[in-house]
Amino acid sequence: MQILTFIGFTLLVGIISYYKSRKTNEASADGYFLGGRSLTGVVIAGSLLLTNLSTEQIVGLNGAAFKDGILVMAWETLAAIAMVVTAVFLLPRYLKGGITTVPQFLENRYDKTTKSITSALFLSGYAIVLLPIVLYSGALAISNMFDIPTLLGVSKTTALWITVWSIGIIGSLYAILGGLKAVAVSDTINAVGLLIGGMLIPVFGLMAIGDGSITDGISTLITSNPEKFKSMGGPESSIPFATIFTGMMLVQLFYWGTNQAIIQRALGAKNLKEGQKGLLLASFIKILGPLIVVLPGVIAFHMFGSEIENPDEAYPMLVSKVLPTALVGFFAAVLFGAILSSFNSALNSSVTLFGVDIYKSHFKTDATEKETVNTGKRFGIILAIISMCIAPLIAKAPDGLFGYLQEVNGCYSIPILTIIIVGYLTKYVPAIAAKIAIVSGAVLYSISQFVLKPFVIGEENYPHFLHVMAILFVVNVLIMLLIGKFYPRKEAFSLTYTEQVDITPWKHLKSVGIAICLIVLAIYIYFA
């Protein structure tokens, strides 16, 4: 019954996605890469949320909450503020310039080489880190939920390979054959399912604690574990409170405002108004995110405590204990949708980056839109196969790999954010400044985290990596401004309106944006 429910819901999503996207012209670059610039606010919001939310976050963040309590909600609630900033500041400029990829702006602002370096950094991050991690964590969750080794009579390793390749192939079909429209539609359906399924876990968990009463469960949970309900972490915690004002906001702004896999949904908006509504709707729902990715971890701590040695086991154990058997198939299908979303979104963005920013720029400048799309698809197939081969090997990696990889992402996130922000806020900073900043940012961060921290100063006395990111961001900005002062561009940069879409802003943008920021502030004050 569980498997039938799982297959039925998954097929339903696929059929609806095909039906909704069948009329989109996939032969054109806009049609394939941006859904024909036809996405509405609700679709954008759903796709943003599902692209962000996947098994490594649901399991990993709840594991962190099991250990540290609700202070880890910073990864969720502060994202809302970053999305407001993106809607107000970055998206109007993106849509005014009519760009398909973020690196495209860098070519217009600086030069082709800067764009290519940035695209290569994005692609390396997706191929080596994001895609394999999503596949591995997703396959692990599905394999354990359905007990694939027993079901198929194979070893755990074989079951992992089978599950990885199954997820990878299905995700590739969505991303490579369907383009962004199919990805976005499937994301929206799965977003609804994940919100419902994700909310069921804390509901049933609280009922289990409160003997059938949710309110009694909340009261018992807070009374018994007051230390888990402090929003401000100390210096020794995983997220010291001071980092919220330094690197945390920079990481959030990079992720929601410049990361191609995320912002591509908003770039496909039919107009600025819909794009802003989509970002703000997603940011409001994001505030509720801790109910799905933080609260269950605290509930698991109350229910199991010292029974769990590895915090990452907290969420799967809670699901198996509190979720009624009849709902396991539905929840597995929703979780499968979240896995597919993160995988196919990153893959679709990789196809876009390669086709537009590398193939058409360096290999065949006179390529037609159809040739660009087809070449991008072929690259996507190769990338998917590589990631499916790498993913099962992650099982042999040392413990703490996911936390380590989060830290590694700083090698490219802060340098890219630096040159984009400076590019929009200044007119005379030259291309050479961007090249120096992006290379120095990556090199200095690598030296800091992988040489100075472990071998010279020591991890105990070293600043938190989010503080290091903030310091290097300031250093890189100063480097660019100094170069711009002494070696300015000959002509001031001017952002040209391409008239691809209407860029009239949403009339309620400021009021809704301020309200969202105040809600986030109120949450922190309440749990201080």
Structure, described:
The chain is an all-alpha fold and 528 residues long. It has two domains: 2-16 and 30-406 and 508-526, Sodium/glucose cotransporter, CATH 1.20.1730.10; 409-486, no CATH class. It is built from 23 helices and no strands. It has helices at 2-21, 29-34, 41-52, 55-68, 74-97, 102-109, 112-146, 148-152, 156-209, 214-224, 247-257, 260-267, 272-287, 290-293, 295-304, 314-322, 325-363, 369-390, 401-408, 410-425, 431-457, 465-486, 509-526. Helix 3 (41-52) packs across helix 17 (325-363) and helix 9 (156-209) crosses helix 17 (325-363). The chain starts with a helix and ends with a helix. The model has no long low-confidence stretch (mean pLDDT 84).
Query: Which second-level CATH architecture of the largest domain applies?
Result: Up-down Bundle
Amino-to-carboxy terminus distance: 45 Å
Shape: globular
The number of helices is 23
Mean pLDDT: 84
CATH class of the largest domain: Mainly Alpha
Tally of discrete structural domains: 2
State the low-pLDDT regions, or none: none
CATH superfamily of the largest domain: Sodium/glucose cotransporter
Largest sheet: none
Helical residue percent band: over 70%
Q: What is the fold-level CATH name, i.e. the topology of the largest domain?
A: Sodium/glucose cotransporter
Give the helix/strand class: mainly alpha
Portion of residues in beta strands equals: under 5%
Order of helices and strands: HHHHHHHHHHHHHHHHHHHHHHH
**What integer value in Å does the Rg equal?**
23 Å
Number of strands: 0
